[in-house]
Amino acid sequence: MGILKKLVITATGDFGSGIDNNQLRKWVEANDGKWTYKVTKDTTHLICSKGHWKKEANAVIAARKVKAYIVTYDWLEDSLQSKKKLAEKRFTLEAVTKERRKKRELTRIAKKADTAKFEKGCEAARADTGSGTPMPQTALKPTSKPSTTTSKHGANPQVPRLKDNHHLYLDASGFEYNILLIRINLSKSTNSRYNIRLYESHTTPHVYCTLVRYAPPGAVSWPSANKHIPCTQPQAPSLLSNDGVNAVKTQQNKHETETERKELHPELIRALRVLQPEPYKKLLAPLNSTYSTASTAFRHAFEDLTFLKWEERHLPNATALQKARTKERGLEPFAYAKPAKGLPIGVMPQGPIEDNYIVGSLGLAGMDETLSMDGVVGSAIFREEESRIKEAREEEESRIRKEEEGKRGGMVKRVKVRNELFFNAKTRGATKEVW
């Protein structure tokens, strides 16, 4: 029996090269369907093109009146290839039009979200680098009289910023290389934070850089934008202008301040750093680095801070690996929170990446927190160790108790056997006397 038996089908519109009403009729009749050249009261299906649906051709209006299915050509083609009549619901022009409209809306929202994410990445670059402040250099005294007219823009040139040419890198899956790592001190109710970022240039060929930001316990915010990282070596201001003279004075004052700091005792400096921790940021991969260099620095920083390789972060045994390495090193690691369900997790390599990296080579600050009950991982390890010791003690006590019970049970059994032998002996003796 044909798959189109009991169906009355007609068509309207253009379906491409080589597909006309005559060809459609042959396919329909070859599968036991009935073909008509116009919509009638018995029509069950109208195969309609997108153009005729949009302009509401006469056939479309007539099909609506007789409540026939108005489907795309794909319904007939897919049914013939599947060798069974497919459900019409997802092939109707109404459903197809609605789906196309939904896809366009999602595309528009996605573009808007990508633009917002891109601008956010640029703002992050600006916050990390600041505006860039020109640094004066020593210059010779001018031999000619300076000009009375100076250009405002020439006297104080603007230094390019990282934001002007960089944004946060997104991989092919849409994952943004901007991760936050946290280490909590449970007893003091404080936390340390690390932010690792991988930047990509707007221009092609793309160049990259990797930056870390550190906020120690007690730090309220991230490093100030005034502590910037300029994207180019700034030019010295001209000494022929007042701005240049002021810049020299500023540099001299800064030098005097640094000299005063150097005169402080090292122990006092160390104590001040403990009492007043300051955030800092650092470029791990310099500007204009290749992707390989920048991504390697990103992965190494993640490994130094979490004791996990970047490609291990989503493994089922990631927590067990982190605990084992924490025990070996005796230090409290930073924790990485996985993206929420449904969000990109990043492109995962097919296997481990071997680069012979020595953990700790980056010398990141804040990695001197010893393992203790104050840390999240440390407290979990100590609780597990206490539980293990408790179970071992209980097993040993149970073993000893069973041995003692076994010894007491054996003595009672031997006494009972002796009594029975003695009683039987007396009975046998008495019996003999009776006989």
TrEMBL record:
Q: List the biased-composition ranges (Low complexity).
A: 141-152
Q: Which domain of life is it from?
A: Eukaryota
> Which InterPro entries does the record associate with it?
BRCT_dom, BRCT_dom_sf, WGR_dom_sf
Region Disordered, annotated ranges: 124-161
Q: Locate the BRCT domain: which residues?
A: 1-93
Name of this protein:
BRCT domain-containing protein
